């Protein structure tokens, strides 16, 4: 074992503190991007009125965030292994803030959709950059906890995009003004990241790129079945976030359970609060027992029971809905284990590439299931609308919600096929 490796495994308290500060400050990018990802849940009624669009059209606009992210995710994994992580964060967060300002100014669906696409480009890098910094700076036994804390930061972004954003819109009287405040917050984060975050190693441009070698690394990552299984598992487990937390949660709760908009926003935000507590719990539990696969299987099974309760619970009370949505976020937090699982199952030199493969599959869930959910809502819709907002019946929602038990069952099957790493990193290169 080299001296540098030993040094990383046993850092001094000062070095460990610096590693945590750098890792968590970089997580502000993930926090901010998650606000952008999930804010359509709050904005949906406002956008329907402003642009005169239905649930299907709103889902399509929102999905362009995921389409953009998918476009760059695999490339992002390759780039992260070869380019300054700090510079990548600063560039793409600046792009996200700029596109948020343009989104606030948009007066057409085309421009709004284009802005959504630009925001998604930055999202391709947010989590992987932070995870790469965590893997570079922190000891291996802290990486699962770090991934849980980073996801917790992102989920707090989801919380901010619900009730607080709705209150801000009501206070300012316009969703566009709220987006300007959003952009100001992002600018502050850019300054903080530029001040605190730095790379573990200096990056220099190679004089000559060995394309044959680079291609062999990509093939190595593509040939590892665990990268695909982990990506599929997390993609499916994440669907409640993409549907309830990011787009249709408030609409569902106001129209079917007759909650007020602030109440619906609070219940919808419980998915994120559940993930806030669940992510570090699963990371801690997985590290404690030295297993990755078992908590993933257990979490997926609990997710099936939880979503069935949400769909079929007869006339749930407000507190029951809060409990069900919180527990849904908590049990589906098992998805955070797949990130250390992927890093452990691949050589260090293809960490970013492997995460890129898994993340591409993960985010494809938003691109596929947000428009699909909207289309299922409209399949038997009678065309009813009030004040510019489409009104859907209980049977419309019931049909759309039935995709959840199906995808959770598939996630259980995927987790059963995953090979256990026992929290040990794979050092082989073949």
How would you concisely characterize the structure shown here?
This protein is mostly helical and about 425 residues long. The chain is about 80% helix and about 0% strand.
The level 1 CATH classification is: Mainly Alpha
CATH homologous superfamily placement: MFS general substrate transporter like domains
Q: What is the CATH T-level topology?
A: Growth Hormone, Chain: A
Intertermini distance: 20 Å
User: C-alpha Rg, in Å?
Assistant: 21 Å
Count every beta strand, where a strand is a DSSP E run of 2 or more residues: 2
* Level-2 CATH architecture: Up-down Bundle
Q: Which oligomerization state do the chains in this entry correspond to?
A: single chain
Number of helices: 19
Order of helices and strands: HHHHHHHHHHHHHHHHHEEHH
User: In what range is the share of β-strand residues?
Assistant: under 5%
Total number of domains: 1
- The average pLDDT score comes to 87
Strand order of the largest sheet: 1-2
Class by SSE composition: mainly alpha
The biggest beta sheet reads: 2 strands, antiparallel
Low-confidence stretches: none
Using the alpha-carbon principal axes, give the shape. Answer: globular
Helix fraction?
over 70%
Keywords:
430 residues, mainly alpha, Growth Hormone, Chain: A, two-stranded antiparallel ribbon, 78% helix, 1% strand, globular
How does the SSE layout of this entry go?
Elements: H1 3-9, H2 13-38, H3 40-51, H4 55-80, H5 85-105, H6 109-137, H7 143-160, H8 163-172, H9 175-196, H10 211-222, H11 225-237, H12 239-256, H13 261-289, H14 293-312, H15 318-331, H16 338-344, H17 351-379, E1 385-386, E2 389-390, H18 394-401, H19 403-416
Antiparallel strand pairs: 1-2
Helix pairs in contact: 2-5, 2-6, 2-7, 2-9, 3-12, 4-6, 4-17, 5-6, 5-9, 6-7, 7-13, 8-9, 11-16, 11-17, 11-19, 12-13, 12-17, 13-15, 14-15, 14-19, 17-18
């Amino acid at each position: 074992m080299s001296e540098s490796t030993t040094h990383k495994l046993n850092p001094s308290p000062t070095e460990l503190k610096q590693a945590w500060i750098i890792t968590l400050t970089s997580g502000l990018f993930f926090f901010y991007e998650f606000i952008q990802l999930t804010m359509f849940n709050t904005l949906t009624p406002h956008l329907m009125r402003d642009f005169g669009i239905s649930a299907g059209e709103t889902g399509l606009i929102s999905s362009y965030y995921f389409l953009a992210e998918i476009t760059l995710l695999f490339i992002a994994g390759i780039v992260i292994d070869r380019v300054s992580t700090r510079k990548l964060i600063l560039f793409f967060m600046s792009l996200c803030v700029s596109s948020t300002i343009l989104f606030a100014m948009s007066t057409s669906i085309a421009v709004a959709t284009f802005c959504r696409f630009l925001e998604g480009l930055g999202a391709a890098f947010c989590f992987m950059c932070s995870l790469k910094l965590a893997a570079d700076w922190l000891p291996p036994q802290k990486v699962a906890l770090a991934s849980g804390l980073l996801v917790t930061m992102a989920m707090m972004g989801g919380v901010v995009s619900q009730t607080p954003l709705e209150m801000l819109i009501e206070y300012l009287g316009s969703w566009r003004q709220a987006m300007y405040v959003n952009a100001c917050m992002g600018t502050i984060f850019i300054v903080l990241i530029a001040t605190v975050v730095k790379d573990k190693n200096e990056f220099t441009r190679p004089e000559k790129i060995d394309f044959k070698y680079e291609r062999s690394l990509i093939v190595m990552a593509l040939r590892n079945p665990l990268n695909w299984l982990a990506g599929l598992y997390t993609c499916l487990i994440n669907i409640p976030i993409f549907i309830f937390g990011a787009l249709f949660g408030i609409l569902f709760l106001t129209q079917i359970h007759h909650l007020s908009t602030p109440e619906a926003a609070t219940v919808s935000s419980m998915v994120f609060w559940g993930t806030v507590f669940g992510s570090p719990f699963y990371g801690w539990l997985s590290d404690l027992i030295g297993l990755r696969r078992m908590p993933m299987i257990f979490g997926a099974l609990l997710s099936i029971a939880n979503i069935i309760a949400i769909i079929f619970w007869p006339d749930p009370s407000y507190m029951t809905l809060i409990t069900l949505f919180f527990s849904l976020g908590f049990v589906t937090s098992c998805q955070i284990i797949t990130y250390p699982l992927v890093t452990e199952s691949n050589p260090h030199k293809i960490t970013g590439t492997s995460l890129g493969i898994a993340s591409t599959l993960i985010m494809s869930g938003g691109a596929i299931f947000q428009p699909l959910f909207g289309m299922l809502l409209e399949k038997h819709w009678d065309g009813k609308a009030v004040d510019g907002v489409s009104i859907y019946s209980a049977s419309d929602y019931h049909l759309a919600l039935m995709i959840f038990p199906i995808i959770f069952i598939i996630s259980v099957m995927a987790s059963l096929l995953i090979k256990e790493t026992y929290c040990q990193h794979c050092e082989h290169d073949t």
